[in-house]
């Protein structure tokens, strides 16, 4: 048998034939194809136990997900030509969707490039590589990006903890251009400066852009509370929609300083104030002061990063939403999100309903949003569908 083939155990190919692309180490016939002989990121051909050809991919013997399928066409192995073709497909979709070049250009498995994230900020790119297979192809990927987009700068934001699962080091490096403190993007007519080196994710949360657009439909009222505000994407959107007072809460001093700069940049400084501190503590203080808001925006980080965090994380979501609801005027709007994959949409809705019961509010769910179309869903990989955003009207319980 060719040394670069991976043979699955009997009946382990069904999920892959249905479209999934992850292969776990316990699905490999390690007697026929020992994993220990493979290098991290090494290209492989995946075959069923009956030696049916399934696809080209790459392997990492040190990871629980020990291989990923990248190409299902035998004539198209992992190569610079494949990377170019996939990037052109990804770009075609985004150019159909967006008039301005600010979006997630590549979303891993959903764009046929597992382990690769590319965010586009005009003529600048932030690239994140999360697997050994993509790390091995990094030079080819960067060359393809330069050929397709001709960017003036590329930063490698390889500082995510998930790289540890693949045995990869964490670092931020400049692959093209000079280090810069600020990159500028536009969203819904507003201009934001973000930090491409130290900012969360790659500096911005493109996945919520569609949901932020939806705020216009519901109206935000006079007083708005934006919790986990980061650099102001939600809060400044609310101010631009007519709110006279937007209170932005975040634990990061640096994020709030950047938020204030962004508010001034858009002529909204007089409408925006910031509160630095732990979100739960600040919410309790505002409640005890008798503060009330017409709209409360809750966009926290993932409280459930691993399945073992599920109980504590679910309780945190319930507590956060109860506090948010207690600060709403009757008939007010709660926009609440979860980016925890392990808390599904129905479960998240139940959590919000439980929070409403505890806060003595009768709730109406008006709409449920998800990540935008620059974060397309892979229909066979439920893990890609992580974001839930509920637009909720909160009334006094009778």
Automatic annotation (TrEMBL):
Subcellular location per UniProt equals: Cytoplasm
Q: Where is the RlmI-like PUA domain?
A: 6-72
Which superkingdom does the taxonomy of this entry point to?
Answer: Bacteria
For the biological process aspect of GO, one term held by this record is: methylation
Citing just one GO molecular function, the answer is:
methyltransferase activity
Family assignment?
Answer: Belongs to the methyltransferase superfamily. RlmI family.
Q: What is this protein called?
A: Methyltransferase domain-containing protein
Q: What is the lineage of its organism?
A: Bacteria, Pseudomonadati, Pseudomonadota, Gammaproteobacteria, Chromatiales
